[in-house]
Amino acid sequence: KLGxxxxxxxxxxxxxxxxxVLWYGVQAAIGDLYDDAGDETNAIKYYKKxxxxxxxxxxxxxxxxxxxxxxxxxWADALDCYKQIEDNFFVEYNNMNIAQxxxxxxxxxxx
Length: 111
Fold this sequence. Notes:
Blueprint: H1 5-13, H2 20-37, H3 40-50, H4 58-71, H5 75-88, H6 90-95, H7 98-109
């Protein structure tokens, strides 16, 4: 239900890795909940779990991770996320217009 993030977190953490697609999606959702709560350390941890091997959620989760790194001025890490999207998910890279984010991160890294 809306507004019950703590209950959602408890429920999602009980999810067992029975089907990879769903498990990786759950990890991304947990990362979102931690990001919304301002717990960036755990958000990064769960986003990284979500991008390990399931390509369905990986481009979007890499983008979220890149955005989180940008908010923390971790421009090299953000650029790495965008580069992974470009290298491994070129269609999504174009559809998501990642080039503009990659260029911004690249300009910040070179400073």
